[in-house]
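Researcher: Here's a chain I'd like modeled. Treat it as a single chain, no partners, no ligands.
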Amino acid sequence: MLDMRPDCERCGTDLPAADPGAFICSFECTFCAGCAEALDDRCPNCGGELMDRPTRTGDALVRHPASIRRHYKG
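Model: Modeled as a single isolated chain. Structure tokens:
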């Protein structure tokens, strides 16, 4: 199950699990759309491709809440 990290690792922007606009690599490093574009859709941590992160809404989000651990390294 995806960790659903709450923020962009590069700029700290909030990325709610229910909203589109987050991008992840296969290690679940998470970036906002602007940072993913600036990074040319490549993860700076592993070099992997950044892809749209699926959303988690409704009962699924209630039963499996998103992570609250922030990863911004600013």
